[in-house]
Amino acid sequence: MTDGLRVEIDGPVATVTLDRPEALNALTVPVKVALRKALESIDADHSIRAVILTGAGRAFCAGQDLAEREQPDAAPLEVEVRERYNPIIRALRSMGQPVIAAVNGVAAGAGASLAFACDLRIAAEEARFMLAFGRIGLVLDSGASWFLPRLVGSAKAAELALVGDTVDAAEALRIGLVSKVVPGDQLMEEARALADTLAGGAPLANALTKQALQRAMTIDLDEALEGEAKLQGIAGRSADHAEGLAAFREKRRPRFGGN
Ligand code: T3D
After folding, report:
1. Predicted pLDDT at 1
2. Which residue(s) pair with 44 in the sheet?
3. What integer best gives the mean pLDDT of the chain?
4. What is the pTM of this model?
5. 187 and which of 80, 124, 142, 238 could share a cystine (Cβ 3.0–4.6 Å)?
6. pLDDT value at residue 15
7. What does the pLDDT average to over 85-114?
8. Pocket mutation for ligand 1, best pick of 24, 71, 126 (most atoms within 8 Å of C-beta)
9. What angle, 0 to 180 degrees and rounded to 10, lies between the N-to-C axes of helices 144-152 and 154-163?
10. Which CATH number is 203-250 given?
C-alpha cells in the first residue's frame, strides 16, 4: 500500500486503484513507482489470475501530475517517460494475467495510455478519453501512438491525437476503444464478473493468448501461423489442457491449476 495507490486482492482477482481523487488520480513519481512494483508483484503471484485497474472518485486518471511537473527538481520529460512511464506500460503488457481497465471517469494523457495498454476496457457511462498531450504542447506518450491506431485505425487515431477531441463513452464504444459501457454504479460489479470469468480460465492459456495477440500486431500471417503452432504446442503439453479435456469428458467445470 502506498499513498495514491491501493491494491486489493480478493481470491484470484487483484484490483489496483489509482487513489488520488482530489487530483483526479494524476500520476506522481511515488504513484508511478508503486504502480510498477504492484504490477510486477502481481505478475509473480500465480494465485492471482485476473487484474482490474481503475480510479478512485470521479476520474480514472488525469495523466501526469502537472503540479509535480512544474517542481524545479522534476526529472526531464524524456527521462521521466523512459524510466517511469515506459516500464509501467511494459509491465502491463508482459504480465501473465489479463488486465481489465475499468474506466470510471475521465482518462486523460498518460491516463488514457494506461487504459489503452490493458487487455480489455470497459467503461462507465460517465467515462471519457482525452488525448490531452497536445493541449499542453506535448506529444503522445506511454504507448498511445502505438496503441491508438491499432485500436481505432489510423484515420481516427490521427483525428483524436491532433484535434484532441474528447471521446465520450458512447463514442468510445462505437469506435472500438472500449468493449462495453455500463451505468457507473454497475462498473465495478461488471469488471469483477469479467475478472471472475477470466480467472476461471486456464492461466497458462490466458498468458499465451495475450502473447499471441500482442505479437500479431507486428508480424505477417505466416509468422502468426507459426507462432500459434508453437504456443499451441506449449499449451497442449500443460496439465491444464489435460484437465480441460477431462472436464469435457466428465461433463463438469474444469479446475485449472495453472500448470
Ligand atoms: O512527466 C511528464 O510530464 C511526461 C508525461 C506526460 C504525460 C501526460 O499525461 S501529459 C497530460 C497531462 N494531463 C492533462 O493535461 C490533463 C489535465 N487535466 C484536465 O485537463 C482536467 O482536469 C480534466 C479535463 C481531466 C478534468 O476537468 P474537470 O473540469 O472535470 O476537473 P478539474 O476541475 O480540472 O480538476 C479537478 C482537480 O484535479 C483540480 O484541482 P483543484 O483545483 O480542485 O485543487 C485540478 O487541478 C486537479 N487535476 C486535474 N488534472 C490534474 C490535476 N492536478 C494535477 N495534474 C493533473 N493532470
Report:
1. 62
2. none
3. 96
4. 0.97
5. 124
6. 98
7. 98
8. 24
9. 130
10. 1.10.12.10
Is 26's C-beta closer than 6 angstroms to any atom of ligand 1? yes
Ligand 1 site, residue 138, Cβ cutoff 6 A: yes
Regarding the beta carbon of 136 and ligand 1, being less than 6 Å apart is answered: yes
Atom of ligand 1 lying closest to residue 85 CA? 5
Nearest Cα to Cα of residue 115 among 157, 76, 156, 143: 143
Q: Ligand 1 within 6 A of 67 CB?
A: yes
Q: Per residue in 67-96, pLDDT tens?
A: 999 999 999 999 999 999 999 999 999 999
Rounded distance from Cα 23 to ligand 1 centre (Å): 7
- Say how many Å lie between the CA of residue 37 and the centre of ligand 1: 24
For the chain, where are the alpha helices, taking DSSP H only?
29-44, 66-69, 77-80, 86-94, 110-117, 144-152, 154-163, 169-174, 187-199, 203-216, 221-236, 239-249
Is the model's pLDDT at 258 over the cut of 90?
no
In the chain, CATH 1.10.12.10 covers 203-250
**Domain 4-199 belongs to what topology?**
2-enoyl-CoA Hydratase; Chain A, domain 1 (3.90.226)
What distance in Å separates the CA atoms of residue 198 and residue 119, rounded to the nearest whole number?
11
Residue 84, SS3 per DSSP: helix
Which residue's C-alpha comes closest to atom 52 of ligand 1? 23
Residues of the chain with CATH 3.90.226.10: 4-199
- Ligand 1 atom closest to the Cα of residue 23 is 38
Closest residue (by CA) to atom 55 of ligand 1?
65
State the pLDDT confidence band at 169, using cuts at 50, 70 and 90. very high
Residue nearest to atom 48 of ligand 1 (CA): 23
Mind listing the pLDDT tens digit for each residue in 122-152? 999 999 999 988 889 999 999 999 999 999 9
